[in-house]
Amino acid sequence: MHNPRCIRWIFLGLTVLLYPAVSSAAESLNSRIDQFITEGYGKFKQEVSPRSDDAEFLRRIYLDLLGRIPSTAEARAFLEDRHPRKRERLIDRLLAKPEHARHLQQVFDVLFLERRADEKVPRAAWEEFLLQSLAANKPYDQLVRELLSTDGADPKTRPAAKFLLERNLEPVLLTRDISRIFLGRNLQCAQCHDHPLVDDYKQEDFYSIQAFYNRAFLYPNAQTATAVIAEKAEGEVSFVSAFDPKKTQKSSPPRVLMGRSFKDPKVEKGKEYKVAPAKDVKPIPAVSRFAKLAPAITGSDNPAFARTAVNRIWAQLMGRGLIHPLDFDHSGNPPSHPQLLEMLAEEFEAKQFDVRWLIREITLSESYQRSSECKSGTLSPDHLDRYLVANLKPLSPEQLAYSTLQATGFTDTVKASLGAEVAEPVLHGKLAPNATPIIRIFAALPGEPQDGFASTLDQTLFVKHNGSVRNLLNAQPNNLLDRCLKMPDNSAATEEIFLAVLTRYPTAAERAAIVHYLTSSKERSVAFSDVIWSLLASNEFRFNH
After folding, report:
1. Distances in Å between the alpha carbon of 438 and those of 334, 459, 472?
2. A Pfam family for this UniProt protein (predicted)?
C-alpha cells in the first residue's frame, strides 16, 4: 500500500510528577523519558503515532546527529541490516564520528553568535575552539564558563571571548542575550519596567545581571579589532521604572534571578586596583564583578541554567521545547511535562553536563523515534506539545546546504577525488565553499535567533534559478546524475534518486510516474536533472520528519 503522505510531499515538490512509582534510578534515561511522555497522552492515547519505519528514522537520525542526510550506500546498508538493535548501534556509530562534533559546532555557533560578523575574533579560530571543545565532549557548563569569563588577552584562549567581544560588551545586548540563551528568559521587555505581561520578569532581574559587567569595558576601545576586556574598580547599576511617576532611583548588586546577591568586600582606599589605570596599561581591579558572572550563571544554585540547556537540546531533537517558546520560561507558561524537565535537568547536571550522553538518551527513546505521520490526518496543538507524533522540523541552513551536497552526489565526487580515507577536516574544507551560498540565503539576519521556518522570495528564486544549485545537478564523476545516466533501467535509476534525495524507496505510484516521465522524455539527462531538482525543491526534502 502506498503512503498518501509521501505522494503529497512529492507532488508539492513537483509543482513547485515526581518520578513514576515504577521508575528507578537504575533504569535508562530513555526509558524514563518514555514513561513521562506516555503519562502525558491522557485521552489522546489512541492518537499516538506508531514507531517510525527504518527509512524515516534513518533520515532523521543522520540530520540530527551529523547535520546531513545519508548517502545511498549508508542508506542501503542500514535498510538491509537485520540486526535487532541496529538503531542503537547506528546512533553510537554516528555519535563517534568527527562529523557529529562538526554538526554540534555549527549548532552551537548559531546559538551563541547568531551569525554576527567576525570583527574581533577570526571565524576560523572560533570554529576550531568550538570544534575541539565538542569533539572532546567538554562539559556544557565548562564551555559556557569559558565563553563568559575569558577576557581575550591570551591569544591561546581568545577565541572563547568571541561571545562577549562580538557584542562589544554592550550591557543591554549582553543582558538580553545571556538571559535568553542561558537562562531561558527574554528580559528585554523588563529593561525599562517590570514586564507588563509576565509577572516573573522584573526590572531588577535585568539590572542585577547587568551589574556583573557594568564596570567592564573594551580596552583600549571598542573600535580596536584586538580589544580585550578590562574592568574598573567602581560603578553601580541604577535604574528607574518608566511606570514610576516619582522616578525613584534604584540599584541592584550582581545577582542571577533568585540566586544570591554578590556584595563587594570593603577595599582599603588607594588599593582599589591590582594594576592601576595608566596610559597604555590595562587596569585590573582588586575586586572583580566580571569574574563572578560565569560561576553565577552556571553554578548549581542557579537551576535555570541546566533547565534551559536541556530544554534547548530537547527542542533541537524533538522539534519543540518542553518549555515553548524556548526563551519564555515563567510560571504563566509552564512546561508541557514539568517532571520530565526537572528529571532531565537533574540528570544532566549529575552527568557533569555531558551533551553527548543526553543526545544519545533522547534519540534512543521511543518518543523520539515516533513517526511524523498523524493518525487522524490533522495535526492539533495536542499532537505537538504531547509528542503524539514526531514534530516536523525545518532543516537549518547548514543541514539544507550539506544535505543538498550529499543528495546531488557532490560530496561523493569530492570524496572520490580525495581518496576513501579522507580526514573530516579536509573533506569539510572542500565542501564548505559550496555550502556557504546556500547557508547565506537561508540564514537568519545577524543577531537574530534561527527560529522556525519562513520561506522568502529570495529563497524560492535561489532554489529555482541560482547557478550554484543548478551546477550541482550537472553530471560529474560519481555524482547522482552521472550514476543515473549509467543505469539503463529507469526503474533502478528512480530508486537511486529517491534513496539519494529522500532516503527512502519510491512507492509504486511514484516509481510508475517517474519511469513514465523518463521514458517519454527526449533528453534523458535533462529529464533526470528535472526529477532530481523537483525532489530537492519538495517539502519532504526541506523538512526533517
Report:
1. 37, 9, 12
2. PSCyt2
List, as one string, the DSSP characters of 111-134.
HHHTT---SSS-HHHHHHHHHHHH
3-state secondary structure 143-174: HHHHHHHCCCCCCCCHHHHHHHHCCCCCHHHH
> 3-class DSSP state for residue 226?
coil
- Distance of alpha carbon 320 from alpha carbon 372, whole angstroms: 13
Retrieve residue 28's grid coordinates.
535508562
User: pLDDT tens, 414-471?
Assistant: 999 998 789 999 999 999 999 999 999 888 888 888 776 666 666 666 666 566 777 8
pLDDT at 17: 37
Q: Which residue has the cell 525543491?
A: 537
Q: What is the pLDDT of residues 111-154, one digit of tens each?
A: 999 999 999 999 999 999 999 999 999 999 999 999 999 999 99
CA angle (457, 463, 466) in 5-degree steps: 100
Q: What is the DSSP annotation of 374-419?
A: -SSS---HHHHHTTSSPPPEEPPHHHHHHHHHHHTTHHHHHHHHH-
Predicted local confidence at residue 383, as pLDDT: 82
In eight-state DSSP terms, residue 423 is: -
Distance CA 75, CA 72 (A): 5
Model confidence, pTM = 0.93
DSSP string for 169-217: T-HHHHHHHHHHHHHSB--GGGSSSS-SS-TT--HHHHHHHHTTTTTEE
Closest CA to 534 of 437, 506, 360, 316: 506
Strand, helix or coil for residue 531: helix
* Model pLDDT, residue 458: 66
Using DSSP, state whether 98 is helix, strand or coil.
Answer: helix
Q: What is the DSSP string of 11-77?
A: HHHHT---S-TT--TTS-HHHHHHHHHHHTTGGGGGG---BPPHHHHHHHHHHHHHSSPPPHHHHHH
Residues 327 and 291: their CA atoms lie apart, in Å, by 25
